[in-house]
Write a structure and sequence with these properties.
Number of helices: 1
Distance between the termini: 46 Å
Structural class: mainly alpha
Number of strands: 0
Radius of gyration: 14 Å
Largest sheet: none
Shape: rod-shaped
Length: 31
């Protein structure tokens, strides 16, 4: 249970980071 929770949290963190970087790149490409 604990390892599964940690795995899910890590995946969410990676997805959030990727989305954050993508949004910055998108904003810069719009200019």
């Amino acid at each position: 249970m604990a390892s599964r929770f940690c795995y899910t949290t890590t995946n969410l963190h990676i997805i959030a980071s990727a989305a954050y970087i993508h949004s910055i790149t998108y904003e810069k490409s719009q200019i």
